[in-house]
Design goal:
The chain has 257 residues and is α+β, with helices and mostly antiparallel strands. Helix content is 23%, strand content 37%.
Length: 257
């Protein structure tokens, strides 16, 4: 009887809404703060020692709910996630010194369907130099009932790697509620960024003059980015003046409609 009564009330309210007598409540936008941080396998560049505590303290106090991490060994992720008490996921790109190495995410919010998407290695390399296999870390998170999708990645220094990484990003970004963040190892005037900018909104203009992220002790170039799908709005963005890793972090607050 109670279930029947609830259905009747819902039906009655829908009729009133259709007649224009009442208006349905509009969902309020939700703010979500995210951050990308190349952590240089959690080495403290001031002491040249692994320092999970300082990284965890900064991440916890940053106000970010979702943090993408670059240059992480898989076995390190448990330490930082335990320090924070947050959920985490690791996406391996390659093997270095017998250890899996890649990107990770730590989140106050539950991670939805996290997965690793390997960026194909160049089939016929056009450039000389060192190569590492790269990876996209994809996941969803839900903030106050609103789902948003996140890609965390780290492009290689070799142009072949970057070209393949851009293609992989374009194949995996969605048109709605999508954040792309990471160390892209490209400066803002690099044409490789143009296809991403055609599909997504670069939050860099919000940074003003404080947009440089590397090296952290005297930054002279911008290598780290946060891009948003065009249905999202960046409320604020900043580069905290932190000298811990060799990169500075990049924090952005996003409005989810």
């Amino acid at each position: 009887m109670q279930a029947f009564f609830q259905k009747f009330i819902a039906f009655f309210l829908s009729i009133l809404a259709w007649m224009g007598i009442i208006k349905p409540k509009e969902a309020k936008p939700v703010e979500l703060t995210v951050m990308t941080f190349n952590v240089q396998h959690f080495e403290n560049m001031n002491t040249c020692e692994i320092d999970y505590g300082s990284y965890a303290d900064f991440i916890r106090e940053s106000g970010a709910a979702v943090v993408g991490l670059n240059e992480v060994f898989e076995d390190q992720l448990a330490y930082i996630a335990d320090e924070l008490g947050w959920e985490s996921f690791f996406a391996p790109g390659c093997i270095i010194g017998g250890r899996r190495y890649g990107n990770a995410i730590v989140s106050k919010l539950p991670l939805i369907e996290p997965q690793a998407v390997t960026v194909p290695d160049p089939e016929f390399p056009a450039y000389d130099g060192y190569y590492e296999t790269r990876v996209l870390l994809k996941c969803g998170v839900e903030a106050q009932g609103k789902r948003i999708n996140v890609i965390c990645t780290h492009f290689g220094l070799n142009p072949d790697e970057a070209e393949n990484a851009v293609r992989s990003v374009l194949e995996n970004i969605k048109d709605e509620r999508q954040i792309l963040m990471g160390d892209l190892n490209l400066q803002p005037d690099d044409p490789l960024l143009d296809p991403i900018r055609e599909k997504m909104r670069d939050t860099s203009p919000l940074l003003g003059d404080n947009c440089l992220t590397f090296p952290s002790d005297a930054p002279d170039r911008k290598l780290d980015y946060v891009f948003l799908s065009r249905d999202l709005t960046a409320v604020s963005a900043d580069i905290p003046e932190l000298i811990l890793s060799d990169h500075r972090p990049y924090r952005c607050t996003v409005m989810i409609p």
